[in-house]
Known about the structure:
By secondary structure, this protein is mainly α. The protein folds into two domains: about 1-65, no CATH class; about 70-105, no CATH class. About 55% of the residues lie in helices and about 5% in strands. It is built from six helices and two strands. It has helices spanning about 1-10, 20-25, 35-50, 50-65, 65-70, 95-105; strands spanning about 75, 85. The protein has a two-stranded antiparallel ribbon with strand order 1-2. The radius of gyration is 21 Å and the shape is elongated.
Amino acid sequence: xxxxxxxxxxxxxxxxxxxxxxxxxxxxxxxxxxxxxxxxxxxxxxxxxxxxxxxxxxxxxxxxxxxxxxxxxxxxxxxxxxxxxxxxxxxxxxxxxxxxxxxxxxx
Length: 107
């Protein structure tokens, strides 16, 4: 950014200075569980130390899921007019219709 270039030029650039402000802005007034806060703080400390890729890996290990790590296979839909790529088609998941019925029939 322009402000980063200016700070570099005058010798005041700190590449990690914006981490805390960014995290505070993202959090807002949200209260996070302690385990989540600990993971974020650990990743921030790692990034502040200059190990950005390691910080990213820490966050990915904790917060990423199957959708970020695997490409789903293609499944034909009931009407067979279109296909879907979603991990929820696996047998380990309940059907979408079952989930919808449970959510809306129990209200």
